[in-house]
Fold:
Amino acid sequence: MHKDIDVSAVLAALTLDEKAALLSGQAAWESAAVERLGIPSITLTDGPHGVRRPDPTAERFSFETSLPATCFPTASALGASWDVDLLTEVGEALGTESRAADVAVLLGPGINIKRSPLCGRNFEYLSEDPVVSGHLGAALVRGVQSKGVAASVKHFAANNQETDRMQISAEVDERTLREIYLAGFEHIVTTASPWTVMAAYNRVNGVHAAHNGWLLSEVLRDQWGFDGLVVSDWGAVSDPVAAVGAGLDLEMPATNGASATKLVEAVKAGLLEENVLDQAVARVLTLLNRTAQAEPADDVDFTAHHALAKRVAVETAVLLKNEGPILPLDPDATTTVAVIGEFARTPRFQGAGSSQVTPTRVDSALDALTETAGKGLRLTFAPGFQLSGDEDETLHAEAVSQAAEADVVLMFLGLPEGEESEGHDREHLDLPDVQLQLLRAVARANPDVVVVLANGGLVEVATWERHAMAVLHGSLNGQAGGGAIADLLFGRANPSGRLTETIPVRLKDTPSYLNFPGADGIVIYGERLYVGYRYYDVKDLRVSYPFGHGLSYTSFAYSDLHATVDGEGDDVVVRLRVTLTNTGPVTGKETVQVYVGDVAASIDRPVRELKAFTKVELSSGSSTQLEFELGARDLSFYSPLHRSWVLEGGEFEVSVGASSRDLRLTTTVKVDAPPLIAPVTWESPVGAWLAHPAGGPLLRRAMDSGEGSAVAADPAILRMVESVPLKTLVTMSGGRLDVTEISRYLDADTHPEGRS
Ligand code: BGC
Structure:
């Protein structure tokens, strides 16, 4: 526990060498200390779903040798809970475990958008949608930081693939960046005040994220008001001087003094202003203050955290289909249930790479099913396949024969561990062939098959799901996932997870199919804003399961949608009220989703976009009234022309529903806003000038006078010149267009975007 540092006094007392040294780590997971001034070193550790504190006694570093910690469901699963309060609780538990392990900065959550289901790290990310990622990410940050531990929101920004991850340049237009790839970060920064943000490895439009002044200073700090520290992803800095100049504060891991030397030289040579370096040092000191605790760490109740991990795992499983309904199974029935698949015995509950946690314990579904089954229920088990993917005829035959003798078959299928990790992307979305062959053979022997999936990234289901009556998308559900699955299958818990990522029919249908993972150091985000459901909806494509989908053992009815609009323009507030009723036989949870679409816009916009959601529990037969509030930002788009979010007045369609393709009620609201005027400059096309309320009359007057009148008088010529920049028209007129008034008008305002 260190004392509060007086930032300005310490800054003044530090030598240039010491200041430079503070801007990179002193070891793999530790920041630098300056003992003479009482500046301590702090520990930074992964990660998003569990504290991966490297074992200090281990001889060499490996992801397998961290100290035991609770392994919660991975972000792909956490997202599927759609439960803000629950994720705050997870954040709190992560914070408590971090404090107890003397970890000051927990490197998570990861909130990058799932641009392609092939991204090898999608299991570490929350959603294809920025509202889900932003709201759930903010909840995790709040939870972690409530314990005095800094969260590190990562990877900022546009880190949506692993292929060539340290060099690739994500080529993204600004509107797409703002609306899709930055929006989640913006929400977290502006609502949850994270103490650190991690700059990604990749380049964004040509410039490395860790060296990107536009991202780190202009957007993150100046526009969003971020007042925390920017840490680099491990090894993301190749030019420390450029990085600090751009707004990066802490380079990790240690560079054995090499970066500090370069910083000192740059300051001495006048290539880096010392006050820029000082700002970064001040942010390091502020982080030390923020994470310094007067209170001793709480004891960790690992049993309680295991129970929380189970509760969370229950909330994250998505019941994709349930014919019959075959689920839930009655644990007290006199039946034989064949449990098939090695994953039932050897669960796959997390991904590999830097987020890999050493769990405090692991519950298998097989053990949990055995414990929960009543006396009359006979369980048999056959592994069916090897996790290595190698064929084994004996295992296959044994599983098929057990299936034939059972009343119901529970098949545990999933992705092999090696397929999902950082550093590489996936090549396809298929389950291993050996598993699919087994599924087909089992289904021939016994059609009453329930498939339970263990996967972080998506798998295609279209080619095999007809062989299963029910499919439970278990995700990578953490160390207590086995118990959660047993409770869900036996109806002790009611499934309530919802997809945060569309399951496409085929990989070929995915929005980035032609542009992933790029080549020659560049990946073009050619699908622009149309990521996930935004793409499938605008193209009206069939999908296997839509964004937001998930079944329950009960049913819900939506009624009485009312919308009111107060105020206008930036102050507009749209209030929604809707009644939700549990019309089914048991208590259950529904995630009510609010989608908004601009009926007629001056630019292309997605058909509809998620803007709000809430998860509610209702007992059978009960109702509740839900309220939502939407503001101007929820109705706006980002206009690079205006360099801001803009609201265009008019009609908006507002829908509430159970998924992006299961909209139960829709209403239209009319919103008033001042007309959108595109700013004009010499570069603006004639059409924009003519449409401009002040510029239009000026140009018309210029054209009407003298020799320009031929253009103004002939609609066909006028049409032809509409796209000609004004300055080109002036040149082409050979001086015959009198632009004195226009020049005076433009000169009167020095606004960089021109006059509006
Ligand atoms: C990952 C980060 C992680 C860091 C430290 C990097 O390879 O991209 O997510 O926090 O390593 O382990």
